[in-house]
């Protein structure tokens, strides 16, 4: 494990491999460990896998944890690693952070990929759900929040066979600092709608059984970003990196080899 610092706060991350820099950002209530098995399928890259602020082994930095702050955390890691440009993929909330990174640091962004994520801001229903989670967290009901949210990342058809992997994610999330989770929830509610710079190769990856993002939203993102590539993976929900890791790795490597400058 390595450490970078932002505002004198610790940002934990791991690196592995060599080659072009590829950053993998986890989602809400996750940590760098969710990429552990999946990352073994990606050869030929220097993988940089952080714990985003308030998650895993990284410190709580501020309140709220805006997506811009998370982008700054990634930039701090790249500076520590002396990486000038990277390909950046983010899962769900990590996708929001990747969008912010591409907007704030276009000169550092070779390509961006959203894995079960969206460029659109929270609607009122989503904001209300996040506010309910904040209320529960303030009432010391972290385990209720975690157990209510995390099982939904899997397609119903995958839930039983992947329960051991899910339980590891749940166990870690139950130990995250409450103020960090609240900071992230507030930060996600503040997200504006993002427009991806058409000069930056843009990869959208979705699952046809996603419990959070309907297929119509993935199709709309592709229509709103005509230079983007959309890949839908059958038989997965909101977590293809554990539901169908081989297929996700193939989609990413195919996109990078075909669309990203060498």
TrEMBL record:
Cellular component terms (Gene Ontology): membrane
The EC number(s) this enzyme carries: 3.1.1.3
UniProtKB keywords: Hydrolase
Residue intervals passing through the bilayer: none
Gene3D superfamilies attached to this UniProt entry: alpha/beta hydrolase
InterPro entries: AB_hydrolase_1 (IPR000073), AB_hydrolase_fold (IPR029058), AB_hydrolase_sf (IPR050266), Epox_hydrolase-like (IPR000639)
Domain of life: Bacteria
SUPFAM superfamilies reported in the protein's UniProt record: alpha/beta-Hydrolases (SSF53474)
Top EC category: hydrolase
Domain spans labelled AB hydrolase-1: 22-249
PANTHER family reported for this sequence: HYDROLASE, PUTATIVE (AFU_ORTHOLOGUE AFUA_2G14860)-RELATED, MONOACYLGLYCEROL LIPASE
Name of the protein: Lipase 1
Gene: lip1
């Amino acid at each position: 494990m390595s450490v970078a610092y932002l505002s004198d706060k610790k940002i934990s991350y791991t690196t592995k491999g060599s080659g072009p820099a590829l950053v993998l950002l986890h989602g809400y209530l996750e940590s760098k460990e969710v990429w552990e098995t999946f990352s073994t399928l990606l050869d030929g890259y220097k993988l940089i896998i952080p714990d985003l602020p308030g998650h895993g082994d990284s410190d709580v930095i501020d309140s709220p944890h805006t997506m811009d702050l998370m982008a700054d955390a990634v930039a701090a890691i790249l500076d520590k690693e002396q990486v000038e440009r990277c390909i950046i993929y983010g899962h769900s909330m990590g996708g929001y952070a990747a969008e912010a990174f591409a907007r704030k640091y276009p000169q550092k962004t070779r390509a961006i990929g959203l894995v079960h994520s969206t460029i659109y801001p929270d609607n009122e229903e989503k904001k209300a759900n996040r506010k309910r989670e904040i209320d529960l967290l303030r009432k010391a009901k972290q385990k209720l929040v975690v157990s209510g949210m995390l099982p939904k990342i899997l397609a119903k058809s995958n839930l039983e066979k992947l329960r051991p992997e899910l339980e590891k994610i749940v166990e870690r999330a139950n130990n995250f600092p409450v103020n960090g989770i609240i900071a992230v929830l507030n930060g996600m509610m503040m997200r504006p709608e993002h427009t991806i710079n058409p000069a930056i190769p843009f990869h959208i990856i979705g699952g046809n059984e996603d419990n959070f993002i309907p297929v119509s939203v993935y199709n709309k993102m592709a229509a709103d970003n005509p230079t983007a590539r959309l890949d839908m993976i059958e038989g997965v929900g909101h977590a293809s990196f554990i539901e169908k890791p081989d297929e996700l790795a193939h989609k990413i490597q195919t996109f990078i080899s075909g669309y990203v400058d060498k």
